[in-house]
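Batch manifest, entry 17 of 40.
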Amino acid sequence: MCGLAGFWQSRPAGREDLEGLARRMAATLRNRGPDDSDEWADEPNGVALAHRRLSVVDLSAEGRCPMVSASGRYVITYNGEVYNFALLRRELETAGHTFRGQSDTEVILAAIDQWGADRAIDRFEGMFAFALWDRAERQLLLVRDRVGIKPLFVYQADCVVAFASELRALRQHPAFVPELDRGALLAYLRYRYVPAPGTIYRGAVKLPPGHVLRISNPAQPLPSPRPYWSAIEAAARGLADPLRGSAEEIADELAAVLRRVVGAHMLSDVPLGAFLSGGVDSSVVVALMQSQSNQPVKTFSIGTAARGHDESAAAAAVARRIGTDHTALCVGAQDALEVVPTLADMFDEPFADASQIPTYLVSRLARQAVTVSLSGDGGDELFGGYSRHQWVPRLWRGGARMPPALRRSLQAGVRALAPESWNRIFAAVEPILPRAARIRLAGDKLHKIAGLRDFSSPDSVYRAVASTHDHPGRLLATTGPQAPDHILSALNVIPLSDQVDRMMLCDLMTYLPDDILTKLDRCSMAVSLEGRVPLLDHRLVEFAWRVPQRVKWHDGRGKWPLRQVLYRFVPRELVDRPKTGFDVPLDAWLRGPLRPWAERLLDPGRLRRVGLFDPSAVQQLLGEHLSRRRNRRDELWALLMFEAWRERWDPAIG
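Output type: structure tokens
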């Protein structure tokens, strides 16, 4: 895993100037690649490529980037891993290619030499983002992996195209203007992340997953990127060709695919381990790792002393059963206090998924022993792990049929009790409830449902459920431009008729790359740890879409086939429990140790001087949370993370 940066400018410059600027851009990415760095420039054409290296495969100098192809035609700077590179290498050697080293980078270049860029990219299996300069065609190609595991940002202005693994590197280029995009701010306040392809800066974009951007002139506006793989098409193909066997037979097929995929992701020349929360997804990854390892796999988990937020005991029990070398860390409010000031630097674009804190802490813990760690991310999106996929259609049907006056009365009744009161009620009756009715943080979710207004379609209900704040414009001091809503935009182009399929595919296209994978990338890279996600191998993604819903949700449980694979290694009583995940008691911390920090950032006078937010609207949210009338942790965290980011990065506010 590495960091890349570079640019192509139409203005002439000397080699030293080109390489020097590229070096300064890449220097901001040192955490992504602490082991080595290098630059390359094409002086006549104004191209410069830079790289920061985290050595994982082929630790020798032969694996350095930027790398020139054997033909001399192509130059690449690259971030990621192509897991099938050994197979491709053997095929290329049969075709007459020879290799200096053992890196996948060299195989990528040889494959492009042999088959051309388009055909070669189709054959790469892995996670990657790279920039490729074609000296013969005088063309720059920017490429991102199929599901968006690795990031790639692009900026075009003033006869310059600049690109990098993170926005911080783009800011080093003198052509970059760090102007706040108010439309992106509104989207961020709604969803707690800035949706692709936008960024928080006007003019900077994220290259969409599964796309190639082919640039022939840096002085022209960026062309539209071309998809080489489509989640929509993968889903449509899978649904049109469903697996026909019994649920048990499909679980057997899944086990075989998982074994191959997890085995491929264990490729490494440095110490390797895995995150283990004790949930289904991470446990099945670890179990399949251990089954293919001749020594105990190193696993890592964290927990808290807060009731309802701690999975460390479950993770330890799973680790003992599987036989891993397990390390656990119990964290508290003081650990969060120490991490919080670093988040705005770690995430150089506003990001407010509070599980960023434990994700960073477990990454830091793992980095003390390994350089690569596998994660269980992706299982929920592919195999039906989110309860909302089941209850949103029911909620829409019930809400749409109910007379509006009755619906408003029921919603008012729910809001009459504070979320914490509902949580206590559900906790008291939980032992007599059926498993499907046991809902974590039930009071918060009831209040969320009670706030729904638009029952015009299941899409509108899903968008509201996915929103942290349904009317983010009310938080702003003045109404600004509104970008198209990315959830509705995604749903509008999804041709699937079944609502559950539509929601799962929308998550795969939006929430997964923009939230879950962004969190993993920034938190792991902050400590120079390579995070891998075998459940998001595109072969497994395509397989999952062939699994019928009747199998994904079977016997009243989501992720049924994944569970069946896991039960071959772990007794079901160890993993059949309410979902917790990596979480922290942020609501309590905002009322306690984080309160002074929060009140400073959201001080009315401070907000008034900047002029972005309405101080009275913000104070209402804060007051409701501190008084426990409502749990406003998510809305407040979004505001706090933005204000911390603004304080750190000082964007131009037009």
